[in-house]
UniProtKB/TrEMBL annotation:
Gene of this entry: galE
Subunit relationships: Homodimer.
Name used for this protein in its record: UDP-glucose 4-epimerase
Cofactor dependency: NAD(+)
Signal peptide: none
Keyword Flavoprotein included in the entry's annotation: no
Keywords, in A-Z order: Carbohydrate metabolism, Isomerase, NAD
NAD-dependent epimerase/dehydratase domain location: 7-255
Length: 332
């Protein structure tokens, strides 16, 4: 085997992809980031290879695959805003399904038959059982979830027909930032709870909205399973090794198995930042299930993976380090 296998990181200039690029390099792989920079940031791929282009552009991807001969493609490039997907489903079907099919077909043409796919808890829809195991019914309630589940189906068919083996990782809530403070989340616009709360603490926003306080949860606010971005990447690394050892196509949940409520997130951020973080109550956000918590026992057992950052305070501390860096850069 090639002593330094190449791994294509589609979406490598984005939030999770940029952490993955760095982790791959630190673990003896040669990462090649591919990103159209629609939402990614060139400076998130410091010191690593970045090819700028669209994963759905077959001529472009053919040249990337020809020139790099990767062992595997990890696919983080997607549109991922649930609300936007409801208003503009075409964008989600095109960016998340059509572009991925083009990518898979180009991979087949170049003999690349290992694929790791960023899937989502949104494939389950409203859970009928919590924590949610992988064999829970998949009935997405928005186009984002539909588009991701459609790719999972396509992946099963591509394995049967073409021997392209894949692992789909259904993330719960990606959170946190690199512990050294040099990589993190930069979405424009930002819609995620933890970065928004921290933008209040750093003075970029006046208050945080709590979307619903009467949900059927212990404190009335929504419960989510926040998983550190480094733990997500570690699971990808384990999945890569599993595929390299011949594992068949499958799916795994990635979460800690612990739920944190919106109130708990805001309280933890108050403790970490020392800022009062004013909160206002707003109506529930359409399509937000009250509880999304993973049963990640399969990933633990079969990938030999366990999250290292279980503590919500640590996840928020890392995100806070990053937020202060972004704020300082803006002020400079
Ligand atoms: O200003 C805010 C923002 C969020 N929330 C609440 O905080 C929780 C977390 O919201 P996020 O927007 O941070 O995350 P989501 O659970 O909505 O989204 C996650 O799950 C989605 C699928 O369900 C997609 O996969 C998405 O990319 C991923 O971040 C939710 O209960 C939401 O209602 C607030 O109360 N106020």
């Amino acid at each position: 085997m090639d002593p330094t296998p190449t791994v294509i990181v589609a979406g490598g200039a984005g939030y999770i992809g940029s952490h993955m690029v760095r982790m791959l390099r630190e673990n003896g792989f040669r990462p090649v980031a591919v990103d159209n920079l629609a939402t990614g940031h060139r400076d998130a791929v410091r010191g690593d290879e970045l090819r700028v282009g669209d994963i759905g552009d077959r001529a472009f991807m053919a040249s990337v695959l020809r020139e790099t001969s990767p062992a595997c493609v990890m696919h983080f490039a997607a549109s991922s805003l649930v609300g936007e997907s409801v208003g503009n489903p075409g964008k989600y079907w095109r960016n998340n399904l059509v572009a991925t099919l083009n990518l898979l077909d180009t991979m087949l043409e170049h003999g690349v038959r290992q694929f790791i796919f960023s899937s989502t808890a949104a494939t389950y829809g409203n859970p009928v059982k919590v924590p949610i195991p992988e064999d829970h019914p998949t009935q997405p309630i928005n186009p984002y979830g539909h588009s991701k589940l459609a790719v999972e189906y396509a992946l099963r068919d591509y394995d049967q027909a073409h021997g392209l083996r894949s692992i789909s990782l259904r993330y719960f809530n990606a959170a946190g930032a690199h512990p050294d403070g040099t990589l993190g989340e930069r979405h424009e616009p930002e819609t995620h709870l933890i970065p928004l709360v921290l933008q209040v603490a750093s003075g970029r926003r006046a208050s945080i909205s709590r979307f619903g306080s009467q949900h059927a949860t212990p404190d009335g606010s929504c419960l989510r399973d926040y998983i550190h971005v480094q733990d997500l990447c570690a699971a990808h690394l384990a999945a890569l090794r599993k595929l390299q050892s011949g594992a068949p196509t499958t799916v795994y949940n990635l979460g800690t198995g612990a739920g944190a409520s919106v109130n708990e997130v805001i309280d933890a951020a108050r403790r970490v930042t020392g800022h009062p973080i004013p909160m206002r109550d707003d109506p529930p956000r359409a399509g937000d299930p009250p509880v999304l918590v993973a049963d990640a026992a399969r990933a633990r057992a079969e990938l030999g993976w366990a999250p290292q950052y279980q503590d919500l305070g640590t996840i928020i501390e890392h995100a806070w380090q990053w937020e202060r860096r972004v704020r300082a850069a803006q002020a400079a």
